[in-house]
Amino acid sequence: MLTPNGGQPVLYENYSGELIDWNDFFKKREEHIELMKNGSSLPACKDCFWIKSANWDERKNEFRYILLNIWVKCNLFCIYCSTHSDKHVIENTKEYNIIPVIKDMIEKGVLTPNTKIDIAGGEATLDKNFDELLSVLINAGVKNININTNATIFSKSIQEGIKKGVVSIISSVDCGTSKKFFEIKKVKCFEKVWNNLKNYSSNLSLNSLNTVRTKYIILPNINDDKSQIRKFLLKSKQNKIKGVILNIDLHWLRQNATDTKTMEKVIDLTRYFINISNILELDWQVWAHIEDLIKRYNSLNPNNKIDINFIFNKTKYVPKNFIEKILNKVNIFL
Q: How far apart are CA 135 and CA 139, in angstroms?
């Protein structure tokens, strides 16, 4: 997804719900790994910023991580969604029930309690099999299930998973005001979303490693301003959200790989996001697309490189003059 070719190695194509021969599947994975070990870059990995020299660890015939994209159903119309450019693909995609496949994976031992599961969309809660899917995973002992939801619908299944300490959620709100929310999502439900997120947060187990997080995707020329970021973080704080995430629109990044001026703005907004999060004592994360953006920026500016480590540094030092400048804007809301 992060390569200039926009790809990843593919082990099974044109999938439509059938059971898979897992021995053949993992054999093909080993062939891919051997190619990489021998220095032969797979076509999908060509010119990837993430290729590095390292020792491959031993791999069992099981999944460490699975992403399930239920991407044919959604009730929002986000302006950055890939379905706008790939609408014909979505309309012609055949739906299938994933439950038999998941049960087969559990039975064959390729999906284990230690497998990390991400469920995304579209909007996963709209799928008629969503509740059963979550139940099957939880009953199999899977203890790290993350659900990407727009939070327009309050799901009792998600609520119960959060109570049990095995479900986390991420909700991409992308703004701090109802007006901007409608501009981006094309639906008026800003306060409803925040109310649902607050309800989810109130069900978190104190001993659980899972959490409820909100996400802000920077969309150049749409929500790339400090006021929206500040208000988004304040909304998160007010609604008892402890974790916040920042990212950049991947489609913009692919199409504007040499726009250093906008990249500089995004880097500045990233620093701002981190500083405000520290002031509000929010646990922040900066996701990989911004890391990719900084690496691209540095490759275009070899004499003026940005130290990328600031997006990983969790120390809560914030310059005193920055705090004084910002507190006048935020303390009225706290």
A: 6
Residue 305 belongs to domain with CATH number = 3.20.20.70
**Residues 93-104 pLDDT 10s:** 778 899 999 999
Q: Edge-to-edge strand order for the sheet containing 243-248?
A: 65-70, 116-121, 145-148, 167-172, 212-218, 243-248, 283-286
Instruction: Identify whether 41 is part of a domain.
Output: no
State the average pLDDT over residues 26-47. Answer: 84
Is residue 47 a part of any domain in this protein?
A: no
Mean pLDDT of the chain, nearest integer: 89
Is residue 163 within 8 A of residue 141, CB to CB? The reply is no
Burial of 198 (0-12, 13-18, 19+ CB in 10 A): middle
Exposure on the CB side of residue 153, measured as CA atoms within 13 A:
17
Distance CA 14, CA 218 (A): 32
Kind of pairing between the strands at 65-70 and 116-121: parallel
Domain that holds residue 163: 60-333
Neighbour tally for 118: CB within 10 Å: 17
Lookup: tokens for 152:
């327009």
Question: For the chain, how many structural domains are there in total?
Answer: 1
Residue 324 domain flag: yes
SS3 294: helix
The answer to whether residue 275 sits within a structural domain is yes
Q: Is the pTM of this model over 0.85?
A: yes
Q: 323: alpha, beta or left, given left = phi > 0 and alpha = psi -120 to 50?
A: alpha
